[in-house]
Every structure is written in C-alpha cells, then in structure tokens.
Amino acid sequence: MEYKVLTEGDVLFFQSILGKENVLNSDLELYAKDCSENLEFFPDIVLKPTTTDEVSQIVRYCYENLLPITPRGAGTGLVGGALAVKGGILISMENFDRILEIDKENFQVTVESGVINYHLQQAVESVGLFYPPDPSSWQSSFIGGNIATNAGGLKAVKYGVTSQYVLNLEVVLPNGEVIWTGANTLKNSTGINLTQLFVGSEGTLGIITKAVLKLLPKPQNDVSLLVPFRKLDEACDAVSAIFHANIKPSCLEFMEQRAIHAAIDFLGIQSMPMDVEVEAHLLISLDEIIEHDLPKLVDVLTQFDIGDILFAENELEKNRIWQIRRKVAEVVKQNGYTIEEDTVVPRANLAKLVREMHDLADKHSFKVVCYGHAGDGNLHIRINHPIHKNSYNNATIREILLELFQIVKNLGGTISGEHGIGLIQKNYLPIVFSSRNLALQNQIKHSIDPKNIMNPGKLFKN
Amino acid sequence: MEYKVLTEGDVLFFQSILGKENVLNSDLELYAKDCSENLEFFPDIVLKPTTTDEVSQIVRYCYENLLPITPRGAGTGLVGGALAVKGGILISMENFDRILEIDKENFQVTVESGVINYHLQQAVESVGLFYPPDPSSWQSSFIGGNIATNAGGLKAVKYGVTSQYVLNLEVVLPNGEVIWTGANTLKNSTGINLTQLFVGSEGTLGIITKAVLKLLPKPQNDVSLLVPFRKLDEACDAVSAIFHANIKPSCLEFMEQRAIHAAIDFLGIQSMPMDVEVEAHLLISLDEIIEHDLPKLVDVLTQFDIGDILFAENELEKNRIWQIRRKVAEVVKQNGYTIEEDTVVPRANLAKLVREMHDLADKHSFKVVCYGHAGDGNLHIRINHPIHKNSYNNATIREILLELFQIVKNLGGTISGEHGIGLIQKNYLPIVFSSRNLALQNQIKHSIDPKNIMNPGKLFKN
Asked: Where is the FAD-binding PCMH-type domain (chains A, B) (predicted)?
C-alpha cells in the first residue's frame, strides 16, 4: 500500500478539528519509543483527540486520504505495537482519561480508553469494588492498551485476563464509523462476538475509545508466601501440585534465582536471606478463603525440597516481597537482558520449558533469565546476548528466537500469553499458526480495514 | 444467492465419501425440527461424517457447487439454528462423539464436537475434574452446539459461560479448509482471537469439529436452598444483595410462582409446601466454601419477607429441588407457553424487567411466565398467547416481541444471553445493534463465507 505523505493541508485540517495545542509536529521523541528493546520510529505528527467524535473525524480523514494511523496508549507495550513504523499519524489517547460511571449496583464501570489501570483500580476500590487485571505496567498503562493486548498480570491465575472483564467497547472503525460492539450484560449470545474480536487486536482493527468493564467485590484479605526451592524443577512441579490439591491461589509467580537476586540487589534489601543453594522461588498469594487454603498449601509445599517460607501478612511485608517481583523485568533489562519473550505453555510443561531455555542459551552462548506467571504457564524469558541487544531485524537473534518458539510450540504453547505480537513478534507467527489460519486472520483484517491504514505493520505481515 | 438444487450426482459423490449408510435422503423428520416452537424445515439430504477430513471434503464440494449447508448438533437449540431453512445439505455431527484425551496434568480435555455435554461431564468427573457449563439441555446437547451458541447454564453465575472454557477449536471453514484457531494455553495474546470469533457464531462461519476445553478441579461439596419470597420485587432485589455481601453462589435461579407451581404439579411432588402468598422463589447453591458463605447468605435472605427456607444437603434432597428448576421450561411449554425469549439485562434491572413483562402481557392479553439465571441477569420469558403459538413470521407476536426487546434494550440489555439468535430472533437485531454494527458483522461473515453457504438464513439477514 502506498500511503500519502502528510501535507501542510492535512496539518491544518487536524488543527481545525483538535485545536493547535493538540496537534504536535516537533519534539516527538516521547512518542517515538515504547518499552520494547531500543526501537525508535518517529511519526510525522501526533494528534491528541479528546472526544470520540474527534477520533472519528480524524480517522475518516485518514481513510479518505490514505494516511497511516498508529493508535497509542501509554507506550508501555513490549512488542513495538505503539510505534509509528510507517510514519504518518500517531493518535495518542492520553486525553481520554475520564472514568465516566461506576455502576455499583451492577458491578460495572464505564471508562474512556486512556484511563490508567491504577487510577481505575483506585477508583473502584474506593467504593468496595475490584478490577483484577494488573499487568506489570499497571501504574502507567492505559485500559485501552490493556484491552488491545488482552493484558494479563499477577492476578490472572485466579481472576482471568483482561478479556474476561470487557463487556462492551466503543470503537472507531478504520473508516471513521463508531460502533458499540455488544451490550453491558454478563452474558451475551447476540450476534458474532465483536467485543472479543477487538480485545487483543492490538489497534489493527480500530481505535477503542470507551469500555464497559465488569467488576467484582473487593476481596477482604490476603496473604503472600515467598517460597525458596533448592531445585528449579521442583518449583515448577509444585505449581501443578498446588492446582491438583484444589487450591486457588490469587497469584502464583515463578522467579529463577538470577532474577530475584538482581531485584534484591537493586532494591538494596538487606534483610532477605538468600540461600545460595536455592535455584528458584515461588511467590504465592491467597485471598479470601485463607483459613481454608493456607494449611493445604503448606502441606503441598513441604513435600518439596524447600527452604524457610517467608510469610507476608501485613502491608509492609507484602510490599517488600511483591516489589521484588514487580521490579524484576526492569532490573534484569538494566542488567543487559534487553530481549523479552512472553511464552506460554500448558502449565505442566513449565519445567521442561525452563530447562530447554537453559540448554538453548548454552548452545548459543547467551544468558537467559526466566520468571513469570507460573500458574498460567506464562513464562517471561529475557535474553542477554553478548553482542546483539535487539531482536528486531537481527539475523542472529532471529535464528535463536525461531528455535525458542519452536520449542514452545512443541510443548503445546504459543508466542505470547499477554504482551501481544506487535512489530517484533509478527515474523514468528508462522511457527504457531498454519498458513490457512494466517490467511483467515488476514481476510478478517482486510474486511474491516481494506486500505490497511490502522496500525499497519503490526500483528499482520504488512 | 441462488443455490444449486441437489442432484443425483451430488448424492453419489457424498455416498462415495461417507458410504451409503451415512447419507440419508428419506425419513428425515428427525432432522427437520429442533426445540424451538413448532417449526419444521426439511433438508434435501442428511450427511453423517465421522472424520474432519470427511467434513472438509463435503464442505469443499458444497462450496464449489453452491449447495447450502446446515450444521447440526443434537437439535436441542431454541432459536431454529439447526433447521435447514434453505433445504440443501444438513451435516449432522452425531458421529463426532469421541472424547479424545483428558489431560489431567493440565486440566484440559480434547473432544470431538458431537460429544454430549453430560458424557463429557461424567468422563472428567471420574478423574476428579470439572466442566462447569451446564445448559438445561446438558443431557442431550452436543459440545459443538454449546460452543456455537456460547451456551450458559445454571453454574455460569460462578463459573462463567462456555466461551470461558474454550481454549482452541478445530474448524472446517466454508471453503473446506481446516484450521486450529488458537493454542492449548490458559492465556493467549497471539493473533486476533479466532477462537472466540467462532464461539457463539452459530455455525455461520464454519463447522466446529474438535475442541480443547479448560477444566477445573471438581468442587468437593455443595448445598442448595429453595427460598420463597412473598414479594416478587424482593426476590429480585435479594439477588443484588447477595453479590453486595460478597457471596459467590454457584447457582442463583429465579422462578415466578406460576413456573414453580407448574413444575411441582407435573412432577407430582406432594410434600413440598407452597404458600399461596409467595410470588417467587430463588434457588441458590453454594459450593466449596459453604461454612464461609452460608451464614452470610442466610443473613442477607432474612432481611427480606421470605417464608421457610428449604435446605437441601444430601443428593436426594438436592435432586428434588433441582428437578423442579430443570423441568420448568418443558412443563410450561406443555402448558401452552410455546414462545421462549432469552433476555439478559444488567443484574440490578431484573425486577424492572419482570414488572414490565407483566405489564406487556396485560396490555396485549397474553400470559407470561419468567424464570432463569437471575445471578447473571439472564431471564427466560415464556409467552402463552391465546391464539398464536409461534413467533416466527407471525405479525401479532412480532409486534409484541418488538416491544419486549425494546424494553430489554432500554434496561441496558440484549436479546439473547445464552440461546443465540438463529432463525427466529434475527429480525430483532436492529433493536439492539446499530446499522453500522450489523454492517460490520456482515462484512466479517462475507469475508469468511463469501458464497453464504454456511448455515444461511441464520443470525444474518439472508
């Protein structure tokens, strides 16, 4: 597709819709990066609409004039999804920051898509309600981006990922038309499921402007346990054992020793004993029915070769151990592990996955660190290659990742559990999808965005 | 679309693929009806394939020869979805009845789409696992049909509907190609969500041949309560109060007095006291954390004007009260309530919905009975019209239903919570969807089934 090059006339049009203050065409560094590797792509212009109607007018203009659009939330994505790889128009949703209605009676909230996850959580908790999805980026990421990538997080193991909380979406389609996708109901068998088609579509099918989200009652109490395992395999096996004992952890995280050490060093935590013989930790939370599940959990854990369990019951103790987990990605990235993968496998194959990742690292002489949402089989794998720091368009890393994803595929898994595909994973899709499956995805994309103006270059090949 | 008329040559082709015994072209009464109203549409031929490859060959032939296909599960649908309204080919999935693998380690099961829900439940329970979705038709309906309609059931209020349990699908597309839609993982942000696009698509986008389903550990114990309310509004209000008290019922059903009386009479239950002043019952189950939730539940209930609560703790007692709920639809249908609607509204609007349905019945001089999944806001409304027994193509009933769905829409709800749209609800879609939304649904249908051979006349206009 040959896109049109932005002209002065286009800029004037956008200014007439948005006002000059919401049309930026210089100093765009902030909008040229996201949180993936070290990539930088400058859009030609950044637009900051405030209403759905403004988004609609902009998009219709781009549709008629063949201008490529990159929708952008907070830029916390890890796969280059918010980068303007074709230049053109970047639409920042930062002004869509209003929580429109909390419906306490029906446990629902209606938000604009630029609301920060953390702000939403705070707002609903203040009225005794609970929005569970909590990706690592929760303090800055937008709900719209969470929906576009079907974000997960720590609590997904018990409460499910973002898709389970999205009841209805207002979307601006690639031709500028505005629709609501569904209804504000807990069940819905009315029409094909447009809502879930937009969840996880990474801004390639339209721009999410509003969302109606399901809420839960706020759990009343919780406890966390940091559990050191002398053998890495046993930490993985314990994950399965916990579920077989019919325990429902609200979080169940895995950290290799290399990951937790880096975070503890970084945070300057002195008082945390770290047995050198320990290979991995599980970080486990229980909520609500603690008295019911905690004894069962300790029974399961003590069947393995573990060190002393650190129990965290008050907020201070809980924060101390959870900040370790929350900081891991940032810290290991600073330590040179710049390439992050987001693999997911059937849960019982976790130990095999970790072992095969270590073998792969040995074979290709890079360092690897594994951590993540063990309860979901969702393992983050960070690679520290002595020479190459980006995976995008690097032949050596590409070869490694082809092997890595083939291992994941052979274990019944797939490329991304919660980050999405975006720019930097799209070339690996043929490993996990047949050509017919990919053709069908492309047909659907083409039927909704025939001119390929909506986040081009992401998720789909072109 | 002008479809081709079936010829002797077509029959011979199908016989060459399936063998004569799996190609039926006479005595097709069994395949001409489903469980909706009194409709009858005969296919020209019924095919009973046994393998995905056979389905693929049949569908490819139909695609090339412009023969309309109606996929059919057990025929338990309530909206005419399995009726061959265009004649042509009916593909019965009854031979797809194998449970292929129960993966105990990963809490997953792989089934063919013609497996009966009840058989699946029995099979997984025998190894300590649990498949929650349990539509009323569970003893005969096929998993493929459950997926195609996104079926709900009694336990959806705690455990969610079918869509939450579908990890991956094998689907024969309208051109005969076969794909797996996703991966056998608990989380997945890889590609657009084809899996959830096929869930609830009612056989209009392809034929589901296999499914990988998520399982849970089997809950260990449960208790049920039948609670009589002297005022119908209070029964509805109690539903909201239960959730506000942070209680998690595993079932939460509502029955108007007219419904429960009919079922009790039909079942010949003598010993159940029925206070004439009672307007409605709630039927509530708790599982697992009974000792935690039961006292809280009784506290909530006793704030309302209720009669004696009937507690059912052993299997005999539980069966006695649950058979009432399970029999309601069949019994009230026999009593002349032949037209069933499957409305769903935000939960707190349930009392308003029931009240407005009664007003509507008074206005148009028909009888109405309401019951259903109160915890989800999903109310089944059955209509007994003194003259008209079918809604399909009946002008009087159509006028009534237009008003009925407008009420539902005004309360924030939609047409179907779990039955689907099929043949008999499709003309009401413009009440709940904008023309742009419907156009988008049609675009997607057209991109996947450009010749409109897959379940034509259902869900979509033509």
From this structure: 39-218
Q: Output the CA torsion A296→A301→A303→A304 (10° steps).
A: 170
- Closest chain A residue to B412 measured between Cα atoms? A184
Residue A267 has a pLDDT of 84
Flag if B377 and A347 touch (Cβ within 8 Å).
no
Q: Which two tokens stand for residue B358?
A: 């009664």
Question: What b-and-e string marks burial along B217-249, b requiring 16 or more CB atoms within 10 Å of the CB?
Answer: bebeeebbbbbbbebbbbbbbbbbbbbeebbbb
**Residues of chain B found within 8 Å of residue A342, distances taken between Cβ atoms:** 189
Other CB atoms closer than 10 Å to residue A396's CB: what's the count?
Answer: 13
* Token pair for A325: 């987990």
Closest by CA position to B401, among listed B380, B386, B383: B383
pLDDT for A112-153, tens place per residue? 999 999 999 999 999 999 999 999 999 999 999 999 999 999
Say if the Cβ atoms of A246 and B193 lie within 8 Å: no
**CB-CB neighbors (< 8 A) of A377 in chain B:** 185-187
Task: Please name the residues in contact with A102: beta carbons below 8 A apart, sequence gap of 6 or more.
Answer: A108, A109, A123, A124, A127, A129
Question: How close, in Å, is residue A9 to chain B by CA atoms?
Answer: 30
* Closest-CA distance of chain B to residue A136, Å: 16
Domains and CATH numbers, chain B: 8-94 (3.30.43.10), 99-217 (3.30.465.10), 220-331 (3.30.70.2190)
- Within 10 angstroms of residue A379's Cβ, the number of other Cβ atoms is 26
Q: What is the pLDDT of residue A381?
A: 97
Interatomic CA distance for residues A12 and A15, integer angstroms: 5
If residue A435 lies in a helix (H) or strand (E), which one and from where to where?
helix A435-448
User: Looking at the predicted structure, is the pLDDT value of residue B274 above 80?
Assistant: no
Number of H helices, E strands in chain B: 14, 18
Token pair recorded at residue B437: 């939304």
* Strand partners for A337: none
CA distance A116 to A121: 9
CA torsion, points B303, B290, A298, A356, in degrees to nearest 10? -110
For residue B433, count other CB atoms closer than 10 A to its CB.
24
Cα→Cα distances B401→B361, B383, B396, Å: 11, 10, 9
| A437/B181 CB distance under 8 A | yes
Tokens of B387: 């003259």
Position A341 confidence tier, pLDDT thresholds 50, 70, 90: very high
B168 pLDDT higher than 70: yes
Taking CB atoms and an 8 Å limit, are A437 and B194 in contact across chains?
Answer: yes
**C-alpha to C-alpha distances, B226 to B230, B298, B312, B351, nearest whole angstrom:** 13, 12, 8, 19
DSSP state at residue B414: B
Interface predicted TM-score (ipTM): 0.97
pLDDT, tens only, A222-240: 999 999 999 999 999 999 9
Q: Which amino acid is located at B193 in the chain?
A: N
B429 pLDDT exceeds 80?
yes
**Contacts with B411 from chain A: Cβ below 8 Å:** none
What's the pLDDT at B136?
Answer: 92
Among B188, B289, B349, select the one facing A414 at the smallest CB separation. Answer: B188
Nearest chain A Cα distance for residue B341, angstroms: 12
CA distance A459 to chain B (A): 7
pLDDT of residue A273: 63
Q: Tell me how close the Cα of A176 comes to any Cα of chain B, in angstroms.
A: 11
Nearest-CB residue to B243 (from A152, A156, A217): A217
β B89-92/B45-47 pair status: parallel
Q: Are the beta carbons of A459 and B192 separated by less than 8 Å?
A: yes
The SS3 call for residue B409 is: helix
DSSP class of A88: S
